[in-house]
Design a protein that fits this description.
By secondary structure, this protein is α/β, with parallel strands linked by helices. The chain is built from eight helices and twelve strands.
């Protein structure tokens, strides 16, 4: 019986910020994440990496090199689970809803986080300074990816988020911060010791550790 683990700490969660900044930020704090990932490869048959736009693939190739990725694919160790789309909070009682992003009016060009699978993988590979030698790498990654459409799990995400929030005793201690300026952002501020429900962090948000002030802040971009 094969053993599997979700390598969640290798998920460079998509948000509205610059992909290059996400890439560099992950690298700057990624030493322990890579250490954990390599340990998982030694212990488990498969380490499954969650992603939306496959920036995690860009990071893997950039750090470990193409040859290592090819070996992991060939051995069956490297798998991806791709969430197509993202979730956002919509006001006026609507709540959490899946959404997509695209440009163009006559012909829609979708953002890699919600595009078709092949486009997203191509976008991630194309972001590498040194392009892979194997022209079939895209197909290999696609063949080792399970895709989940955000629309198909929307109801479950809403239900689980409500359960997490309603059962978490620390939520009442949170302070909701909001500025009417369109250039500002909404935020939830928690005492530093708060165990923040994972469902809140999955939304396009930045977690800020205000250690000096004793707070954790989840900031949602407008």
């Amino acid at each position: 019986m094969s053993t599997k683990i979700l390598a969640a700490n290798m998920w460079d969660v998509w948000h509205l910020g610059n992909p290059d900044s996400r890439y560099q930020k992950f690298l700057s704090s990624g030493k322990d994440k890579f250490k954990s990932y390599i340990e998982n490869l030694l212990i488990y048959d498969q380490a499954i990496i969650p992603t939306q736009d496959f920036l995690s693939l860009t990071i893997l190739i950039g750090v470990l090199g193409e040859d290592s990725i090819q070996d992991l694919i060939a051995s069956g160790n490297l798998k991806f689970v791709r969430l197509k789309g993202a979730f956002a909070y919509v006001g006026n009682g609507v709540g959490i809803e899946p959404f997509e992003m695209f440009s163009g009016e006559k012909e829609k060009v979708y953002n890699a986080m919600c595009s078709d699978l092949e486009f997203a993988i191509h976008w991630a590979i194309n972001g590498l300074t040194e392009k892979p030698k194997d022209k079939h790498l895209l197909k290999k990654i696609a063949d080792n990816t399970i895709e989940v459409d955000s629309k198909s799990i929307s109801t479950n995400v809403k239900d689980e988020t409500y359960k997490d929030i309603s059962s978490n005793q620390n939520i009442p201690a949170a302070t909701y911060l909001f500025s009417a300026s369109a250039k500002s952002s909404a935020a939830l501020r928690f005492p530093a010791a708060t165990d923040i429900p994972a469902a809140l962090v999955i939304l396009p948000a930045h977690l800020e550790n205000e250690a000096s002030e004793g707070f954790l802040t989840l900031r949602y971009e407008n």
